[in-house]
């Protein structure tokens, strides 16, 4: 079983991917199509930096209640959160329970976020409206 330990807001989290973790995200026996969608949502939330996805994942992976995790995440240093997102993503990629599915979906998800970032950068660089065109006539 893949597992790792991280610290958020001074509190230790022992993370592992288990069937309980999968169930917390609605991944169940004999429902492949919905399981793929649920796994995609987990990966998308973690790769995209969604704090709610992080709280749910940390709670399910550590066994701590969501309110405790939410409080730690809200009061965490940025480096702690970066480490947490990275740890969850790495566990999803390496855990025997998730690695086959995640290996198929993570690249398209990351590519989508990269394309969004590029479009935002293009929109912000040199394509801003002049101040005079932002004010009503």
Overview of the molecule:
With 137 residues, the chain is mainly alpha-helical. Helices cover 66% and strands 9% of the residues. The chain contains seven helices and two strands. The chain has helices spanning 19-24, 32-47, 51-62, 66-74, 78-94, 99-124, 131-134, and strands at residues 3-8, 11-16. It has a two-stranded antiparallel ribbon. β1 (3-8) and β2 (11-16) form a beta hairpin. α3 crosses α4 (66-74). The radius of gyration is 18 Å and the shape is globular. The protein starts with a strand and ends with a helix.
Give me a quick take on this structure.
With 137 residues, the chain is mostly helical. Helix content is 66%, strand content 9%. α2 crosses α6, α3 crosses α4 (66-74) and α5 crosses α6 (99-124).
Stretches with pLDDT under 50, minimum 5 residues: none
Task: Write the element-wise H/E pattern from the N-terminal end onward.
Answer: EEHHHHHHH
Specify the number of helices.
7
Largest sheet: 2 strands, antiparallel
Write the layout of secondary structure elements.
Elements: E1 3-8, E2 11-16, H1 19-24, H2 32-47, H3 51-62, H4 66-74, H5 78-94, H6 99-124, H7 131-134
Antiparallel strand pairs: 1-2
Helix pairs in contact: 2-6, 3-4, 5-6
What attributes characterize this protein structure?
137 residues; mainly alpha; two-stranded antiparallel ribbon; 7 helices
